[in-house]
From TrEMBL:
Name of protein: Sensors of blue-light using FAD
Record-level Gene Ontology MF annotations: blue light photoreceptor activity; FAD binding
SUPFAM superfamilies: Acylphosphatase/BLUF domain-like
Ranges for domain BLUF: 1-93
UniProt superkingdom: Bacteria
Transmembrane segments: none
Organism of provenance: uncultured Sphingomonas sp
């Protein structure tokens, strides 16, 4: 099993609810089919996504995601083997940068027992909760 974390920038200035909903519905459908789980956080114009699962399915999903015109400038923050999924129950969990993003993400990531992933997600949320 592998885990991938990347950030990207939305093509539209702020992704609309419709856009995010369409991303999420395709993600949940495909990820459930492919045995992938993960979390998508939207902060301002940035996406941060953690995606995990069997290597072949993960690579195929990431190849599709990279080609998606709704975002650009993807930067891989980490890609590594894992023994246990951090988000086993979420075909794609989601949080938007409304309200206190940092607080929400803090709670959402409390079950993660991998310090570097937890720190990455929390750091991103903290940065964007100030900008919002
Ligand atoms: C920020 C972002 C995250 C995405 N995450 C996923 C994902 O986790 N799984 C997925 O299948 N597609 C994801 N997508 C959508 C894919 O780019 C692509 O549109 C979709 O997989 C096509 O699926 P379909 O052929 O079933 O319509 C994401 C797109 C964006 C912009």
């Amino acid at each position: 099993m592998k885990q991938l974390v990347y950030i990207s920038t939305s093509r539209s200035e702020v992704p609309s609810l419709t856009e995010v909903e369409s991303i999420l519905s395709a993600s949940r459908r495909n990820n459930a089919r492919d045995g992938l789980t993960g979390l998508l956080i939207v902060g301002g114009r940035r996406f941060l996504q953690a995606l995990e699962g069997p290597e072949a399915q993960l690579s195929a999903a990431y190849a599709r995601i990279k080609r998606d015109p709704r975002h650009f400038a993807l930067v891989e923050l980490s890609r590594k083997p894992i023994t246990k999924a951090s988000f086993p129950d979420w075909a794609m969990g989601y949080e938007a940068g409304r309200g206190d993003l940092a607080e929400l993400v803090y709670q959402l990531t409390s079950m993660i027992d991998e310090p570097s992933l937890q720190a990455q997600l929390r750091g991103f949320a903290q940065l964007h909760s100030k900008a919002a």
